[in-house]
Write a structure and sequence with these properties.
The protein is α/β, with parallel strands linked by helices and 101 residues long. The chain has three helices and five strands, in the order αβαβαβββ. The longest helix has 13 residues, at 51-63. The radius of gyration is 13 Å and the shape is globular. The chain starts with a helix and ends with a strand. This is F-box domain-containing protein.
């Protein structure tokens, strides 16, 4: 499926969504323009995730029609050297706790 069709897709039976990306830009766009009414788990491994992009991502997650079903959000971000960043932040999307490390 090409990106144009993916951006406006409706994934009614999808329960887990996992991304391995360099930046969060395309993931944010997909979440903003797609519906995931059965989504229970969201995972993303990203090379870099600035705070402004993280805010956009959590905003998009809160609007993707998954707030009632989403149970777990896990986001792993690595610096350019490939090492874990030394911080962890918890956010709230609906009733879901998010793990961001």
């Amino acid at each position: 499926m090409d990106w144009d069709h993916l951006y406006s897709a409706h994934f009614f039976n999808l329960t887990t969504l996992t991304f391995y990306v360099n930046t969060s830009t395309d993931v944010i766009t997909v979440m903003q323009h797609s519906e995931f009414p059965s989504l229970k788990e969201f995972k993303m491994m990203v090379d870099e995730l600035p705070c402004t992009e993280a805010e956009k991502l959590f905003h998009a997650l809160s609007l993707c029609k998954a707030c009632k079903t989403l149970q777990r959000i896990e986001i792993l971000s690595y610096d350019e050297g490939g090492e874990d960043l030394p911080w962890t932040t918890l956010c709230q999307v609906g009733r879901t706790s998010a793990i961001w490390s």
